[in-house]
Structures are given as C-alpha cells and as structure tokens.
Amino acid sequence: MWLPLDPPGGMDPGDGPAHLIRLVSRHRVVIVGGGFGGLYAAKALRKAPVELTLVDRRNFHLFQPLLYQVATGGLSPGEIASPLRAVLSRQRNAEVLLAEVVDFDVSGRQVILKDGAVPYDDLIVAAGATDYYFGHDEWAPLAPGLKTVEDATEIRGRVLEAFERAEREPDAARRQAWLTFVIVGGGATGVELAGALGEIANDTLRHDFRHIDPSESRILLVEGEDRVLPSFPADLSRKAARQLEDLKVTLRLSARVTAIDSESVTIQNHSRDSERLPARTVLWAAGVRASSLGQKLAERTGAPLDRAGRVMVAPDLSLSGHAEIHVIGDLAGFTHQGGKPLPGVAPVAMQQGRYVANLIRRKLRGGSVGPFHYFNKGNLATVGRNRAVADFGVIHVAGFPAWFLWVFVHLMYIVEFENRLLIFVEWVYNYVTRNRGARLITGDERR
User: Rounded to two decimals, what is the model's pTM?
Assistant: First the structure.
C-alpha cells in the first residue's frame, strides 16, 4: 500500500509537478486468526502507521466463553458472533481476508494461503487451539468438543435429540441410556455444560414431555483431578461442587474415561476399577491442543514446542532469531511468569494482543518495550442460574454475587453493542421464565 505524505512544512498551492506528494510504503502487519488475541491486536493498531491484514478461515469473531449457552439452547449463534469486516469496517488501515493459512515462508516473509500469499514485515500468529483426545481421535465423532459454532449446534442437537428419543423408547434400560449425559472434563467448560444440562433437565423441559420426566436424567461430570475447577482455589472448587450437586449432577472425581462407543462410556476410578455406563450422549471438555500451525512455525523457524503443541516464545512473545514473528493466545507457550504456561483464557489473549500491538508501534518509532507480563484480574466460572464462583486473589466469592459479576463481565467483553443488547434482553427473559428459546435441532442429528 502506498500513501501520500506532504513534504516538510506542508505543500504550497503554487508549487508545480516537481513538488507533487511523495509516496512511501507502509509497514505491513499480518495477523493470523480473528479470535480474542488477533482482534485485540488489530484494534490496538488502529492509529499506527501500518498496513494491517487480518486473515481468518471464518468471517466472524466468536465469543467462545458463551458457546456453551448456544450448545444448551440459551442463545443463538448469531448473538455471540460478530462479522470481522463489520468490526473493522471503520479502521481504515485494516483489511480482512477470508482465507486458510497453510504454511509460512519465513525467509521471504510471506504467509502462505491455500490460494495465494500475503507479505509481512511483522507477523502475529493467533491461531488458537483445538480439542485434544489424548491419542484417541476416534472418540471425536462420539464425544464432540466445544470450540466452534458447529460444535455448539451439534451438541445442542444431540442433547435435545436424546430427550426426544427417550420420549418414544418403551424399554426402561434403553430409555435411561438416552437420559444419561456424561461430560468429560471438570474445568470451566465442563462445569458450565454440566450446570446448564442440570437446569435443562430440572427446569426448562419439566412440562414439555408426556412419557418421561426429564428431571430423572442422569448427568455425570468426570474429572481426573480430585476436585472440579482445578485451577481455582480449593474452597471455590468445593462450593462449585455443591452447586453442581444441587442441580443433581453426579461428580466422578479422580477418574478418567478409558473407552467410548456409540452406546456407552467406560470410566476408571482412582483404584483402577472400571465401570461401563450405558450413555448415548458424551460431551468432551477434557483437553485442548494448539493449532497445527504451531507445528508449521516450529518447522520453519526451529522454535520448540511443548507437549500441548504450543510454540515456546521469548519474554516479548517473539520467536528466537525471528523478532518479526509474534505468537499469542492459546498457541503461545509463555513460561516466563511463574514457570508454567499461562492459562488458555480470553484475558490472556487480549492482553497479549494489545502488548504486541504496542511493541510494533514502539519499534516503528525506534523504541522498545519491556517483557510481557500478564495481569490476572480474576477468574470466573458459572454453574447456572444464581450459581457461580469468582477468584480475585485474596477475595473469593460464590453464589449470586459471583453470578452477577460473571454476567456483567461477559456482557462488557462482547464485541458489538447490538449483540450485547440482544444477549442482555435474552438473559433477562430466560431468567424470569426459566426458558431457553433457542432449543432447535438443526441438521441431521438423528443417530
């Protein structure tokens, strides 16, 4: 991109062609990924003298923390997704490309697309993470994770389909299998899914069926550690566990799943005793692995990867020997603060996106910045209506106050005001009526 610049002191209207505006090339910044890290980096470069290109294979930014509400019928996909072009439409130095990145030409400073290439002077890779099945990829079709809109609508269809199948099933054992839901993983996503399923079974669907009682559903949450929400303080984990039990969720702690098929799941406890449990709906929230683009970066730059496939970065989020390449968000293995990788949560990606944007601005002015430091403002996890836990360091909050904080914080982080307003209205209505209006079975969900 070439932009006009006035000569020093401005341009005299009487000057002739010899004083025409000089053209110079702008610094090119390419961002791979329109998630929290990539989008916040792009917006932070709004006034920078750069030519910015955001590349993503989806045309929208997805607010992943609320995906579980789409999966359980509380919200519709469009309410938690914002078109990237609309978000950046007024940012004149930015363009959006709908394309898939397949490789990197590090020496030529180009991002290789499936159908072309984009040159860069600075590269920000924020490609995120995917579900990880610990070597059992064959479980993926049987136990969907929750990373995309398609995952959420598939889970929604499977859950609602299970109740429909149970309604028509005359055999008691088969009916109970349809009414058994197993969530694998007791982190924030697993706890949110389990709590929402408990509310669906006990409140939302209680008057909808004639031959089954949805409250007789069996909801199991399987966690390998000895408590749910292992990243939270122990007292908040205990309170979250009690909140789940109030919703009739059964906890299987210090246990792991060893087999999944279309009709059952096998659970092994800490004593290595195994139980095969008939269950037609299994949901995965147990593990994530960095995007495969991390492997490509490692091959092209020699950067090391950790066990989760994250690219190990320097204190300024760049790659060793490649100060022009920055990796942020779930793809970054940042261990310079406490010796352990930072959690894969939205605030980390947001802060890293802003930091790299500031680093690029300073670099263009001949300056520098210190190493990245994550400021943890607190952790929140919701269990359901009026149920949540919040960790603010020495201050621990549970119950309605934590839930209210969770609602406020999530509304504030929604990118578009229109979506923020729609979600607020939807939540108020659902709170008053205990309804979930987006209970739609879409696609071919019948199994």
Answer: 0.90
